[in-house]
């Protein structure tokens, strides 16, 4: 037991290298259930296909799957998004900010300069972003003087990631950010002030976003209702479950409009007759449904009706 504790302690102590960036070994240690490809920094690399299909998942569907898997602390609401109708989906690059403490802040800046970092510390994570990453930062809820980005950094973020940001802090330059087509920002507030008395503590470490725990590589699903932080190893399950629910809803609503079944039949456990009808409907409409054809074919293989 002492050896295990010592090993983990060494991972923690040794993890903050390269300007407070968590080590690859520690990220792998914290995400053992992910069995797929990883980035060089250790983050799980959920496929672009899953990310694209995740855009059709509702907040409620994702939340329900995670709850059923025992993950009860992955949703956070109370945001002030830049746009209500532009979802954010991508892989989390996590950042931890804290109230400034000069001795610690100077050490971090010194190490960053030695590692080749340039500019203010709030731009360092931006330099690390890859396409389909989401810059997720805990800025301890600071609004006044807690503006992590303005329109200049926002343009840089979108150029690299093609997504947006989720900040437990504020942003400035709402008008300028609104002009970046496809970009969105889920923040705690908007303020004209500049960032001050805030220091970067770590990059790609586990962070707390309100009531949620977020790990680097988690999949971000941000829509009008709020943000769900999906563990990478559950991303595909969330997508597939959502697609099945979507198909069953489309079938059920269609049959109700036709008058073929009663609401009581559709809203309760389906009979074998309805299940057979659903399978036939899937085959007949495979090319026109809002779910990839390959996924419908895979679903049909598993059905016994």
Provide a quick synopsis of the model.
This protein has helices at 2-15, 24-30, 48-54, 59-68, 102-114, 124-128, 151-161, 174-178, 235-258, 263-267, 272-284, 293-302; strands at 75-76, 80-81, 88-99, 133-147, 164-171, 184-187, 189-190, 198-203, 207-209, 212-214, 219-223, 226-230.
Structure characterization notes:
With 305 residues, this protein is of the alpha/beta class. The protein is 41% helix and 22% strand. It contains twelve helices and twelve strands. It has helices at residues 2-15, 24-30, 48-54, 59-68, 102-114, 124-128, 151-161, 174-178, 235-258, 263-267, 272-284, 293-302; strands at 75-76, 80-81, 88-99, 133-147, 164-171, 184-187, 189-190, 198-203, 207-209, 212-214, 219-223, 226-230. The longest helix is centred in the last third of the chain and has 24 residues, at 235-258. The model is unreliable at 1-17 (pLDDT under 50).
Features of the shown structure:
alpha/beta, Glucose Oxidase, domain 1, 2 domains, ten-stranded mixed beta sheet
What is the secondary structure topology, with strand pairs?
Layout: H1 2-15, H2 24-30, H3 48-54, H4 59-68, E1 75-76, E2 80-81, E3 88-99, H5 102-114, H6 124-128, E4 133-147, H7 151-161, E5 164-171, H8 174-178, E6 184-187, E7 189-190, E8 198-203, E9 207-209, E10 212-214, E11 219-223, E12 226-230, H9 235-258, H10 263-267, H11 272-284, H12 293-302
Parallel strand pairs: 3-4, 4-5, 5-6, 5-7
Antiparallel strand pairs: 1-12, 2-6, 3-8, 3-11, 9-10, 11-12
Helix pairs in contact: 3-9, 4-9
């Amino acid at each position: 037991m002492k050896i295990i504790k010592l090993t983990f302690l060494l991972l923690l102590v040794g993890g903050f290298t390269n300007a407070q960036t968590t080590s690859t070994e520690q990220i792998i240690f914290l995400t053992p259930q992910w069995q797929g490809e990883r980035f060089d920094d250790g983050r799980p690399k959920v496929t672009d296909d899953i990310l694209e299909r995740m855009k059709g998942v509702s907040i409620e569907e994702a939340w329900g799957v995670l709850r059923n898997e025992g993950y009860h602390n992955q949703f956070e609401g109370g945001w002030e998004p830049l746009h209500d109708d532009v979802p954010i989906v991508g892989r989390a690059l996590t950042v931890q900010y804290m109230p400034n403490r000069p001795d610690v802040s100077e050490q971090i800046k010194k190490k960053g300069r030695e590692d080749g970092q340039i500019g203010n510390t709030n731009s360092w994570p931006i330099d690390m972003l890859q396409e389909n990453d989401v810059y997720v930062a805990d800025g301890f809820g600071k609004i006044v003087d807690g503006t992590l980005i303005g329109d200049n950094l926002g343009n840089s973020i979108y150029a690299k990631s093609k997504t947006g940001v989720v900040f437990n802090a504020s942003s400035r330059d709402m008008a300028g950010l609104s002009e970046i087509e496809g970009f969105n920002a889920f923040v705690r507030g908007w303020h004209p002030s500049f960032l001050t008395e805030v220091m970067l503590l770590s990059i790609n470490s586990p962070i707390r976003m309100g009531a949620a725990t977020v790990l680097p590589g988690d999949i971000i699903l941000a829509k009008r209702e709020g943000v769900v932080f999906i563990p990478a190893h559950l991303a595909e399950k969330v997508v597939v479950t959502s697609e099945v629910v979507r198909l069953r809803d489309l079938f059920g609503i269609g049959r109700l409009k036709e008058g073929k079944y009663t609401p009581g039949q559709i809203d309760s456990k389906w009979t074998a007759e309805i299940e057979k009808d659903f399978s036939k409907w899937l085959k007949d409409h495979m090319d026109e449904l809002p779910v990839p054809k390959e996924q419908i074919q895979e679903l049909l293989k598993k059905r016994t009706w």
